[in-house]
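User: What would this chain look like folded?
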Amino acid sequence: MTRVEFFTGPAIAPQINRLSALRIAVFQEWPYLYDGSLSSEQGFMEGFAQSTTAGIAIAFDGDEPVGASTCLAMTEEDDHVTLPFREAGLDLSKFCYFGESVLLAKYRGQGIGVRFFELREAHARTLPGVESTTFCAVQRPQSHLLRPADAIPLDNFWRRRGYLPTDLICTMRWKQVDSTEKVENRLRFWTKRL
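Assistant: Here's the prediction, encoded as structure tokens.
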């Protein structure tokens, strides 16, 4: 039986090691194709434990984490995430950024992703001044050689949650399973007004 719990601040710290390994496992898959390291993931996750606005929804099967979904005030996000908003003249303080969502394949389609959105939106509503939530998703061509034949875009799932795609695009670089060097990737933002 799976359950989803929400963690903030120092309560995130004990989860870091197991979440880092989970993130690497899921992000290696389509569409992110991320070839990450445990040390870099742990360093990234430690930032959430030190943040005053961050939260992480974690799905557990027994005591084992099988999925996780992050959020924090956009004002705390890195420049590569905030740049499109700043260039568009948008007020960062009005947004809560929904970062990475990972869920092991065998647990998908059971409502956990919906719960991730519910818990993060509830957290966003507690942040002063936040009016909207946003996330970005990597853009991959239909012709990509590593695209699985049964790959289903999540656009309809996101639309059912009330999110709409925007013209805001950011770029991020990461080492991929099909590359020896970091590759630049384009990610499109989706937003929802709370």
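The mean pLDDT is 93. If you want, I can go into more detail on any region.
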